[in-house]
Amino acid sequence: MNWRHAAAALALLAAGCASAAPSLAPLADWEADSRLAARAGRPLVLFFTLPGCRFCEDVRQRYMLPLVRQGQLVREVVIGSAQPVAGLADANAQDGVARKFGVRFAPVVLLVDGQARKLADPIMGGDTAGLYGGYLDNAFEQAQRTLGRQVD
Questions:
Q1: What are the distances in angstroms from CA 69 to CA 66, 72, 85, 105, 113?
Q2: Is the pLDDT of residue 9 over 80?
Q3: What are the angstrom distances between the C-alpha of 112 and each of 39, 100, 109, 144?
Q4: pLDDT at res. 150
Q5: CATH 3.40.30.10 fits 23-151, yes or no
Q6: Which helix (H) or strand (E) holds 17?
Q7: In contact, 82 and 93? CB cutoff 8 Å
């Protein structure tokens, strides 16, 4: 096999791997997503982004996609997007969801329950100090404690 054939084979392999990679689903149906999270006893993870945001892409690849692979319910909300969102009072588009939660910049990760209540402090900004994983762990612990109190 010459180098052209090898390069073509590698390109096909890379394309196949890229298409199999998990992606983040957009927030589109609040009621369905909040029911899924409630049934699993987990928070709904809202990942607020902006198009072309390199910090958003870093957080998506390094933290949000692994959360999806672990079974967490992560939904992407694009600030400024008119993409419809059903079932959430006072927010019928993704930009309205950002306004409802007071999110004006990206990236922001917010853990909420089915009633749109914040379960933990938001994680704002990118992973500039290498501590993002710890921030996520703390937010999930805080969310689980809050969810546990809500059940009791």
A1: 5, 7, 24, 26, 20
A2: no
A3: 14, 12, 10, 11
A4: 65
A5: yes
A6: helix 3-20
A7: yes
* H helix runs in 49-131, sequence order: 54-59, 65-69, 94-100
The beta strands (E) that lie in the chain are given as: 25-26, 44-49, 73-78, 108-112, 123-124
What span, in angstroms and rounded, lies between the C-alpha atoms of 135 and 140? 9
Average pLDDT, the chain: 86
pLDDT grade for 22, boundaries at 50, 70 and 90: low
Per DSSP, what are the bridge partners of residue 10?
none
Residue 50 · residue 106 · CB < 8 Å = yes
pLDDT, one tens digit per residue, over 63-121 is 999 999 999 999 999 999 999 999 998 899 999 999 999 999 999 999 999 899 999 99
Distance of CA 48 to the CA centre of its chain: 7
Q: Is 136 helix (H, G, I), strand (E, B) or coil?
A: helix
Strand partners, 16: none
Cβ count within 10 A of residue 22: 12
Q: What is the dihedral of CA 137, 89, 37, 148, to 10 degrees?
A: 60
